[in-house]
Amino acid sequence: MSYPDYGPGYYGPPPQSHPSGTTILVLGILSLVVCTFIGPFAWSMGTKALREIDASGYVYENRGHVQAGRICGIISSIMLMVTLGFVALGLAVALIGGAFSSTSSY
Predict the structure, then answer these.
(1) Are 21 and 65 a contacting pair, CB within 8 Å?
(2) Cα dihedral 17→63→55→72 (10° resolution)
(3) Which uninterrupted H or E stretch holds 20?
(4) What is the DSSP string of 27-86?
(5) pTM for this one?
(6) Are 20 and 45 in contact (CB under 8 A)?
(7) What is the tens place of the pLDDT at every residue in 25-83?
(8) Rounded distance between C-alpha atoms, residue 19 and residue 61, angstroms
(9) In this structure, how many other beta carbons lie within 10 angstroms of the beta carbon of residue 24?
(10) Cα–Cα distance between 25 and 75 in angstroms, integer?
């Protein structure tokens, strides 16, 4: 009895998971849903992890998770910057409006 030829087998190391891949994804999702202040952390951690993945030469099975968390962090950081810009604009308008109002009655 002969066995069918399935071709060469898979040789090499099995795919690994990056240790902080899940953390980056969770931080990215939470930065969009709960608190935008953690968006820059997801962005910077994701960038660092992607550099480590690219430099290692190994196949990581959760590269997509790292990329998704990083992109969520970028979006959240942009939303944070826009929000802080509107808050600064509102404070400036309030201060200018308060300076021109006549509150003193003599």
Answers:
(1) yes
(2) -120
(3) none
(4) HHHHHHHT-GGGHHHHHHHHHHHHHHHHHH-SPBTTHHHHHHHHHHHHHHHHHHHHHHHH
(5) 0.78
(6) yes
(7) 999 999 999 999 999 999 999 999 999 999 988 888 899 999 999 999 999 999 999 99
(8) 11
(9) 29
(10) 13
